Amino acid sequence: LVLVFVLLGLTLRVDAILTETSEQPDLVVEVTGFQWQWQFHYPELGITIAGDPEDPPVLYLPVGRTIRFELLAEDVIHSFWVPEFLEKRDMIPGVVNEIEVTVDRPGTWVGRCAEYCGLNHWQMWFDVNAVAAPQFDTWATVTATQPQPVVQGRAQITTSTSSTAVPVTTPPPTVSIPPTRPSSTTSTAAP
């Protein structure tokens, strides 16, 4: 019995270390999973990125900054997974899960839903584009001026009017928008 409690204590300690988040991350991204797509909202920047089944969204991240992902599910259980981040976290309706990463090098990776979530589960993937911090800042400045949500994915064009290429998007004919987030306040009906 003592051995069980020792192992439980060690498990809880390691779990606390692995799931610890900083008080002030450099960037917060709200990731919303819904059948069968993703939406990325950068609340501090006023940017919302969405995709559609033909053109999944791109999650832009700065290299060298701490990024907190707040993970939300609108309908069924999903799972946010980018293998290169060495993190996978379930997204449960009504529960906000968090993970933090610091991307240490530029690159492009594929993220996906790692929890079977229905018939078109295979369509739940997205691209991750990690760029140098100054290039991310330029992207954020330009993207924040566009109508939101920005439909952005692989079928985008780029312009190089500055020293760094900045994505300019062309919305596809159909756009998947997730259901509205439930209000954090509750109301009670009058008797």
The overall strand count is 13
Report the radius of gyration as a whole number of Å: 18 Å
Relative strand content: 35-45%
Poorly predicted ranges: 154-191
Could you say which overall geometry the principal axes of the C-alpha atoms support? globular
Structural class: alpha+beta
Helix share, percent: 10-25%
Biggest sheet details:
6 strands, mixed
Describe this structure in words.
- With 191 residues, this protein is of the alpha+beta class.
- The chain is 15% helix and 36% strand.
- It has two helices and 13 strands; from the N terminus they run H-E-E-E-E-E-E-E-E-E-E-H-E-E-E.
- The strands form three sheets. It has a six-stranded mixed sheet with strand order 8-5-1-2-3-11. A five-stranded mixed sheet has the order 4-10-9-6-7, covered by helices on one side.
- A hairpin with a 6-residue loop joins strand 12 and strand 13.
